[in-house]
Structures are given as C-alpha cells and as structure tokens.
Amino acid sequence: MRKFKKIIKTAICLNFLLIISAGIAGVSTETPASPYELISKYLQKKPQPNTKIDKRVLELLDNFAAEQKKLISFTATIELSTDVNAILENNTHHYQNTLARVRFDEKRACSHLLSWGEIVPNNHYEKEKPYHKSHWWDGIAYYMYDKSNWENESYKGTLIIKLYKSENNFNGRETILAGYTACSWGMGYLPQIKDRVDKIIRNADSAHVREKMEIVGDSDCFIIEAKAKTGSYLIWIDPSHGYNIAKLELRSKPGDQLSGGYVLPENDGFSVSINNVKFKKFDDIWIAIEADCITERYKLTKENHQYKITEFVLNPDHIALDSFIPDDIYEGVRVRLVDSNNTQLPGKFTWKNKKVMDSYGHEIDLDNLGHPSLSGKVLPDLAQFNVKLEPDAIKNKMLLICFWDMNQRPSRNAVQTLNKRAQTLLEKNDVYMTFIHAGPTEEQAFVSWLKENEIHPPVGVSRTGLPELGYIWGVKSLPWLILTDKQHKVIAEGFGIADLDEKLDNN
Q: Which domains does the chain have, with CATH numbers?
C-alpha cells in the first residue's frame, strides 16, 4: 500500500511539473493526463508477476526443467508390474506386467508395450501372447498399432496413422513420453495428467516452498506445496540428484480437471503418490530408474505400480538402430489414414515391407499425403492405370497426362481438343500424351465414345476417382493436366489447355 501511495505522489508531482513547464515555454497543451492515467500506463509497461507463486518455487522448477532438457536422445527398457484393486468389483484383484522399450531423439519417438496378465478383469493374456501396443512419431505421422486378439490367428491387429500438419503444433514426442513409456513418472509426467508437472505448477493458483527441508531416502529435499486446476500438490525436489522429483503427492477433488478436460464430479476424487524413488547418473544426467506409484480413483480402483528401468543408453546411434522405422507391425495389416481433424482418408491401404501401400501396390508418400504437389518429382508409375507405355516410345519424350471424366462436358472437350493436337505435339515438341479416365462409367459406352471420337493416345482407367486421386496424385479437379520434362520429372500441373504452349516454350 505504501508503494502504491508513493507511485500516486510521484505521478501527481510529474503531472504538475509538466503543466508548469508548458506554461513557462508559452506552449499551449492539451488537457494533461490524470495521475490515475499515468499510473495505469506505468502498470501496463511493467507487468506484475504472479505473487501467488513463490520465487523459490520458480527457481526449483527451472532447475528441474534444465535437467530434463538434457534428456533429449536415449533408449530405455522398462519393467512395470501393477496390482489392481477393483473396488466396484467387490475388491477383486488382478495383476498386470508390462515390458516397455522406448526410443527418443529431439523430434521423434517410439514406444513398444507388451503386457500380460489380466489387462482387464476376466481377460487374461499369456506372456507368450501379450497385449501388444506401439506408438511411433516420425515428425509427420503418428502411428498407433494394436494387436490384442490372439484367438483369431488371421487377425493382424489395427494400424491407425494420423497425419499432422506443422501448423497443428502437435508434439508427438511429448505425447508418447507422457502416456506410453511406463517410466514417465520420474520425468515429471503423472497418470491422467497431460502436462509435465513443472508446467502445471508454473500456472498454479498458488505455490510456495516450505521453510524446512525434509529427508527423502538419503537426501535433503525442498518441498513445493501448490494448488492447481488439476488438484493439490506436494512435491519433494532433490537438489543432490539433479533437482529431480524424489517424492510426490497429488490429490484431486470434485471440480478439479484431469486430462481431456474431464472435470471430476461430486463425490469423486483421484490421487497419485510416488515413493521409493532411486536415481542413477548417466554421464551428467540423473535418471529416476526405480519408483513405486499408487493411483486411486475414489470408489473405483486402486492401483499399485512398480517400475524399474533395466537398460538405459544416452545418445545412442539411432541410424544404426533404425530406431524410428516401425518394425513390430504385422505384414499385411489394414491401415487407416486419418488427417489432423480425425477424418479418415478414402481408399484402401495396407502395411507391406514397413511401408504404407495403396490398393495398386504402390508406396504412399506420407510426407505429401493430402493434396500433394508432384512438381519437381519423378512422375509415379502409370502402370497402375493399365496404361502400357513402350519404353522406346517415351524415351527422351515429355509426357502430358490428362485426368478426365467422360460424364463431364469440360472433360470431354479437353480430351477432344488435346486429341486433335496429339500428333503435332509429338512431332514438333516431343510430347507424348495419355489420358486417364477417373470416373464411374459403363464400359461399353466408354469404349464406344473413344471409338466414335477417334481418340488416338493411350487411355488408362483409374479404379478410384476424386478425392482419392487428390490425396495421392494431387488431382484437385477434372480435367487435370500434368506435364513432365524429358526425364519424366513433373514441371507443371493443374494448368489449362490454353496455357500448354507457354509451358512448352518455357521448357
């Protein structure tokens, strides 16, 4: 309050001096700003820190984040055992065991989880035939593979590949680290909580450090006490082990928010306790290699987890390891391609030779899947459209491909116009032309139309139309022209017939 009064006095004096100065100089002035307006501008220029967060809390969080920032590239093998007490199921118990293998670098990540025991009540998996789940992130696509049905020998699992654009700001590495590693508790990620704990505390309603330190294991630890949207936290920070978390308690009550925006209703609650943490140093980084974690959902379940990192390699040779090439997906499994809006892309896709293949048996370029541009790329093989192009006939020739639909007048006109120019273009410009029909039609009517109009260039037929051709070939509308150079590299696409001569002159 004294500081605020001092600011007011200063503002009043400054305002008075400005008036006197203007009068002495004989300068006419507009109505000067009031002291309260000056105070408002002062406060705007100097944003006030959140006084509910103790500075010592921020210092400890900075140290914790700095240690985690070192943990960029690594591989790890983790063993996890879980005892589940299903309260709603008359306090029945079931056990789970999980073997996790994870790999990370700066932008990519993968996680293999093999689980056995009772993954859910009355559903037992043998260790030889475990519940198999893997997640991969290569910076463009997020792979989710699930193989759980061992009763059906022909069942190969399900593979969903979700494609993300850069503007979505999706962090697949953090998604896997937070939810699919089985070792993330020691790295600041908690069950049912999306964000890392230091981010949560920075945005907490209040947080402070207790005056007295407390011994956890054999180390004196600082204790952060905080209230956030996700619940109330007690966090023991161990300065002798890289400012990592040596112990943690979270209590979430009705009204608190868990992952996915789920708000705990009345008479509900959630808690997490992490204890018995053991650390090991790898180079200059401390890693929590063992811990016990108890999660409890009020009146639903209580789970006791024990995890142990049995193998850890810092900064491995990911190239030699083929770390981020999906290698545990069954050959021939059907693939669902989904865009960032969760819309499934049309077409039939399968997994073969560690690649996504279309229904023609051609590899799908996930980097450009959507409405790709073929410009600057070698033209994909036209054999999938049953177009037989003799190698000698197209050698050192430019290629002009026209995708069209006989049921559309603009397409018919385009084919008729280009057909009249086909021989001239071939003789004068070394341009070899072909037409690809991309629409439903009755075969006899289609053949009759080609014959009546004396269509000379080779004609192929696509078994799919738009939008699938758009996702693979970049065809946005019909008719659609693609022009290549003599090495069959695409130099123009999606242009009109009127622009063809200009495209040829420029090349």
A: 2-45 (no CATH), 55-321 (2.50.20), 371-505 (3.40.30.10)
